[in-house]
From TrEMBL:
It holds the Pfam family DEAD. Its EC number is 5.6.2.4. It catalyses: Couples ATP hydrolysis with the unwinding of duplex DNA by translocating in the 3'-5' direction; ATP + H2O = ADP + phosphate + H(+). CDD domains: DEXHc_RecG, RecG_wedge_OBF. Belongs to the helicase family. RecG subfamily. GO terms for molecular function: 3'-5' DNA helicase activity; ATP binding; ATP hydrolysis activity; DNA binding. It comes from the Bacteria. Keywords: ATP-binding, DNA damage, DNA recombination, DNA repair, DNA-binding, Helicase, Hydrolase, Isomerase, Nucleotide-binding. SMART domains: DEXDc, HELICc. Coiled coil: none annotated. This is ATP-dependent DNA helicase RecG. The keyword rRNA-binding does not apply. NCBIfam families: PRK10917.1-1, PRK10917.1-4, PRK10917.2-2. It comes from Accumulibacter regalis. The gene is recG.
Length: 690
């Protein structure tokens, strides 16, 4: 027997419900329709519009199994009220897959003159009007006065083997059995145009036919607003609880005189921006707290996040602790290592760089160094592999944090017990998304670009104008500058991706004869990659052909031209990141987006956005509009189950309201907060804790 709150259904049905995340009867009540079908009325075949979902009430005239092209069941029907032989009232129901029992049931209905109701779209087929695979029901008697439904018919999200009829029965039973007690103040709900939850749920499961379909389909009806608010409230409560729980944990007190940080700033060949100083102050204050910092540092490409991280590292080291800096790729880890060594080693800081390409003996020695004397350890995911232990880890920095899964981020945190954590991202998160998906983090923003950076012009060229692009590369090199040429993105196959890089390199060696061409891709060994990048940095390579391994972190001030081949295959965040590899010096810089016709509507929209905008946050907002929050953040990176009903852009006001209410409930009525969490998340709350 199932537990009191579990769904009472056969094991096979419960297994399919499990795939939908439906374990409890309350889950069924909150499993709301995707759309609705109107079976509250019938339309005469002779008067029915084409291509519109509707219901007809008809008599079976003929039943035939056709084997002309493929085996199919053809059931000719006629309006119940039609005169015999009236061609205008005839309709053919076409079933491309069927059972013998269906054929027999239609034959029986023809012989007994039992009416049937069929729901679907009528179209003009080869042999006249037809409905393909309609939903139908044969009435029990020859009388056609069987009552029609009084509400719209819900169509629920489902899975293979779980019929809509079964779902409707289970939901109807749960609605009778489950008491959705109100957890929010009625007066407060009324003031914010939010109906009672129980009334909202019942209306959405069985709306009356006169209710405007647009309000239901567009999810703008007040009942939908209440559902969205409650869903967002549960999410905010869970993330806020995780935030408060973290503040109850102990962490190293990283209190320093600031001497090391001052020495670093004095030695820099550039002045910090106001935004960098402000953000460094926010992080520094966090590090002095007795609970672990968990801060997201956001800033557009080239805004100077690394130097802010270096100042936090200085405070950590001066307080007697170690810092770890984890980057998603070996190229980026190597770049950070070179930059941080140049800044910190002259100040007496011991820096170690760990990566997967090191030999076993070297790796063992560096692990030993990390466990004892090293003050800063820089590396890739090698930092979280077995066998590496930190002596006194006080600060863990994760660059391009969205490139790591939640488990990897947690592994680094566990390495040092409970260090402070700073996550950095040059993929900006729009405000509503940050409020929702990162409500358990403190967020800092560098919103100022360092002086001396040249703006990057973006130009669009179709592949037919490739010769003009190669001529532009020659001109740039003749002027003493360097260029990147990024290969087409082929996500489905690493082997094809490598071949595309090799083909592009071979073609450019021919097209740009006389120039020094280099090639770097993800399948090169670590030492080879490092050698090619070092040669490019030193100016020994004119044009670097690369895959997206150079997407983040690569900093070569003399490179002033970026060519992205097959730009239509790239996402907006990647295009913006790649464009950010140039314009890092004082030279005028250009990014050429080389695309191939014909363009899909989505590709055209992306290229238009990247052409018109240079601000990363504006691009992120447009990206969110195009892709939706689920794909923008990605459940693997965020660790947050995707919202089923709320839309973070459309419902931004509800996100604000949910944040305020979450704080109030946790402060004034924690039991009611717990009830809200149980209702909406059940045992899924742990997914939000990473």
């Amino acid at each position: 027997m199932p537990a009191a709150d579990e769904i009472d259904a056969p094991p096979a049905i419960r297994s399919r419900l499990h795939k939908l995340g439906l374990e409890r009867r309350e889950d069924l009540v909150l499993h709301l329709p995707l759309r609705y079908e109107d079976e509250t009325s019938v339309v005469a075949v002779a008067a029915a519009p084409l291509g519109v979902p509707l219901q007809v009430e008809v008599l079976v005239v003929d039943v035939v199994v056709s084997v002309a092209s493929r085996r199919q069941l053809l059931v000719t029907v006629s309006d119940v009220s039609a005169e015999h032989g009236d061609e205008g009232s005839l309709l053919r129901l076409r079933f491309l897959s069927f059972y013998g029992s269906q054929q027999r049931a239609f034959e029986d209905a023809r012989q007994k003159r039992l009416p049937l109701r069929a729901f679907g779209e009528i179209r003009d087929g080869f042999l006249g009007l037809e409905m393909v695979h309609p939903r139908y029901r044969i009435l029990r008697t020859a009388s056609t006065d069987e009552a029609l439904p009084q509400s719209l018919t819900p169509v629920y999200p489902s899975t293979a083997g779980l019929a809509q009829g079964t779902l409707r029965q289970l939901v109807a039973r749960a609605l009778r059995d489950v008491d959705l007690g109100e957890l929010l103040d009625a007066g407060w709900c009324a003031a914010h145009r939010l109906p009672a939850l129980s009334a909202a749920v019942h209306l959405l499961h069985s709306p009356p036919p006169e209710l405007a379909a647009a309000l239901l389909q567009g999810r703008s009806h007040p009942a939908w607003r209440r559902i969205k608010f409650d869903e967002l409230l549960a999410q905010q409560l869970s993330l806020r609880r995780a935030y408060l729980a973290r503040r109850r944990k102990g962490a190293p007190l990283l209190i320093a005189t600031g001497g090391l940080a001052k020495a670093l700033v004095s030695a820099l060949p550039f002045a910090l921006t106001g935004a960098q100083r402000r953000v460094a102050g926010e992080i520094g204050a966090d590090l002095e707290q007795p609970f672990p910092m968990q801060r997201l540092l956001q800033g557009d490409v080239g805004c100077g996040k690394t130097i802010v991280a270096a100042l936090a590292i200085c405070q950590t080291i001066e307080a007697g602790y170690q810092a770890a800096f984890m980057a998603p790729t070996e190229i980026l880890a190597e770049q950070h290592s070179v930059k941080l060594r140049a800044w910190l080693e002259p100040l007496g800081v011991e820096v170690v760089c760990l990566s997967g390409r090191l030999g076993a003996k070297t790796r063992r020695a560096l692990r030993q160094q990390a466990a004892t004397s090293a003050q800063l350890v820089v590396g890739t995911h090698a930092l979280i592999q077995e066998g590496l232990d930190f002596a006194r880890l006080g600060l863990a920095i994760i660059d391009e944090q969205h490139r790591f899964g939640v488990v990897q981020r947690l592994d680094l945190r566990r390495k040092g017990g409970n260090p402070h954590q700073l996550m950095m991202s040059a993929t900006p998160i729009p405000r509503t998304l940050a409020m929702s998906y990162y409500a358990d983090l403190d967020v800092s923003l560098i919103d100022e670009t360092p002086a001396g950076r040249s703006p990057v012009r973006t130009r669009l060229f179709s592949d037919a104008r490739r010769a003009e692009v190669t001529a532009a590369v020659r001109a740039v090199v003749a002027d003493g500058r360097q260029a990147y040429w990024v290969c087409p993105l082929i996500e489905e196959s690493a082997k094809l991706q490598l071949q595309a890089a090799l083909d592009t390199y071979t073609a450019l060696v021919g097209e740009l004869s006389g120039l020094r061409i280099g090639l770097v891709h993800g399948r090169l060994g670590g030492a080879e990659k490092a050698a090619v990048m070092a040669a490019f940095v030193a100016g020994e390579i004119d044009v670097l052909v690369a895959t997206t391994v150079i997407e983040v972190g690569v900093d070569v001030a003399n490179a002033s031209l970026m060519v992205i081949e097959h730009a239509e295959r790239f996402g907006l965040a990647q295009l913006h990141q790649l464009r950010g590899r140039v314009g890092r010096g004082a030279h005028a810089s250009v990014c050429v987006l080389l695309y191939q016709q014909p363009l899909s509507a989505a590709a055209r929209a992306r290229l238009k956005i990247i052409f018109e905008h240079s601000d990363g946050f504006e691009i992120a907002r447009e990206d969110l509009r195009l892709r939706g929050p689920g794909e923008f953040v990605g459940s693997r990176q965020s660790g947050v189950p995707l919202l089923r009903y709320a839309d973070l852009e459309v419902d931004a006001d509800l996100v604000e309201l949910a944040r305020e209410m979450a704080a109030q409930l946790l402060r004034d009525d924690p039991e009611r907060a717990a009830q809200q969490l149980r209702r909406w998340l059940g045992n899924r709350e742990e997914l939000l804790r990473a």
